[in-house]
Amino acid sequence: MALLLRDVTIGFTGRRADVRVAGRSVVAVEPVGSPADGADVIDGQGGTLLPGLVDAHAHLLQWASSRQRVSLAGATSAAHAADLIATAGATPGELLQGGGFHAALWSDRPHKTLLDRVLPDQAVALFSNDLHTLWLSSAAMRMVNVDHPTGVFIEDECMALTAALPAPSTDVTDRWVVAATAAAAARGVTTIADYEYTDTVADWRRRDTPATRIRCVIAKFLLDETIERGLKTGDPVGDLLTVGPLKIFMDGSLNTRTAYCHDHYPDGTYHGELLEPLDQLLPVLRKANDNGIGLALHAIGDRANTLALDAFDRIGVGGRIEHAQLVDPADVPRFAALGVVAGVQPGHQPDDRDAADHHWAGRTDHAYAFGSLHRAGATLEFGSDAPVSALDPWDAIASAVTRTDDDRPGWHPEQCLPLDVAVAASTGGRGTTVTTGAPADLVLVGRDLTSLPPSELRDLPILATVLDGRLTHRT
Fold this sequence. Notes:
Blueprint: E1 2-10, E2 16-22, E3 25-30, E4 40-43, E5 48-51, E6 53-58, H1 60-66, E7 70-71, H2 78-86, E8 96-101, H3 112-118, E9 124-128, E10 133-136, H4 138-143, E11 152-154, H5 155-164, H6 170-185, E12 189-194, H7 200-206, E13 213-219, H8 223-229, E14 236-238, E15 241-249, H9 278-290, E16 295-299, H10 302-315, E17 319-323, H11 332-338, E18 340-344, H12 348-359, H13 370-375, E19 380-382, H14 393-402, H15 419-424, E20 442-445, E21 462-467, E22 470-474
Parallel strand pairs: 1-4, 1-5, 6-12, 7-8, 8-9, 12-13, 13-15, 15-16, 16-17, 17-18, 18-19
Antiparallel strand pairs: 1-2, 2-3, 5-20, 9-10, 10-11, 14-15, 20-21, 21-22
Helix pairs in contact: 1-6, 9-10
Domain Amidohydrolase: 40-472
GO molecular function: hydrolase activity, acting on carbon-nitrogen (but not peptide) bonds
Protein name: Amidohydrolase 3 domain-containing protein
C-alpha cells in the first residue's frame, strides 16, 4: 500500500510537509502539495505526524476481560462496592465479575460476608484496580475449591485464583484480546508489550493477527521452558510478534499496601512484602541473561527499587524496572549509570495521589519522580499497566505533563515533564521526528502539538495509525 500523508507537521519541528509511505518504510518527506502519484491520500490539515506509540507495559487478556466487567471505580467503601455489584444483573449459576476498585483509603475492609449478604449464593469475583487483590464471595470460592476466612486474596494467591476462575472459551477471549489491540490502534498505538502472566508466546501464535506489534513477555514460571524452546528476547515468533523480557515481581503494590518500602506504613511496623530476596533472585537473573533473555523487575516501593538496582549492579547488565513508583533519591542516578530503563505508568499518579499522601506521607516528593529520573539521564518508557490504567498513551502523556486528571493543581509539579519528552517516552526510543527511511509505524494526530494546551491532550483526535505500512485506524 502506498500512502501520502498530506500537510502534516513533523513532530515538534514545526515543519509542514507531505510524507510518502511505500512498503514498510517512509520513502520521502516532500513539500506540501506533492502529486499523489496513485497513493492513498490522507489529509493531515497541519496535524502532527509522529512515530507510532508504544505501550511498554499492559496485560492484554486482563485488559480485554476488564472491558466486560462491572466497573467499581466509583466505590467509596467495601460496603458501597458490594451494593454496586448487587445492582449489576447477576445470572444464577454464572460468575459475576467486577473490577477497578481502590481500597487503600476505605474505612472498612472487603469481606466475603458483604457479598454474601447482598447476593446470597451468587458467585462474585471483584478485582482491585491494581490487580493485586481478588475479593470472592463464598459461592465463588466454592467454584475454585478454596476456603478462606475473609475471601480476600492478595499477591500470589490472587494471581493463582484469578487463573483458576471460570472463564469464557479461548475462542471468545481471543476475540476480545484482538479487539482490544484495535482499540489501542485507534489511539495511535503500534506496539504493546504484553505482560500477561501466561504463556504469551503460545497465546499470540494461536490468535488472529493483532492490530499492533506484540512483545510477548515471559513469566517467571516459564523461564526454563522458554530456554528449552531456544527463544531469546527480540526473536520473531510470528507476524508482528517478538519475544519480550523475563518479568519477575520484587514486591506488591501501593493500594494493596504490599509495596516494599524503607519506611513502614502508617498502621504499624509493616514495610510491605519482598517477594524475591536477592539470594533467590540473582541465580534466576543470571540464567536468563546467559540465555539471551532480557530482564524486567517489577518494583514499586523504594526498598524494592533499591534491591532491583542492586541486582542489576551485581550481575553487571542493564534491564528494566517496571513501575518505579517510589524511588529513594540516592537511587535516581543509578538508573542511568546501570543502563536500567524506568518503565513507568504516568496514569497511575493521578489515581494514586491520595493513597500515596496517606501511606507514603513525607516521601511523596520522590514518588512517581519522572522529572527527577529524566534530569538524571534515565531512559523513560511509558506504559499503561492496563487494565490498571486505560490503554491510551495520551492519558499517560497528559498525566506526565500536568500531574493531575481533575480540577486539582498538579501534584508535585516539580516532577512534570515537557510535552516533547513525554511523547518521546511513548515512542519506544524512536524520538518524535519522522524521517526518510524510518519504519512505517506512524500516528497522525489531528492537532499541531507545538501549540496545544496541555488540558486538551487526553481528547486528541487520531486521524490515522499506520502499522508496517498499512492503515490500522483511519477516521
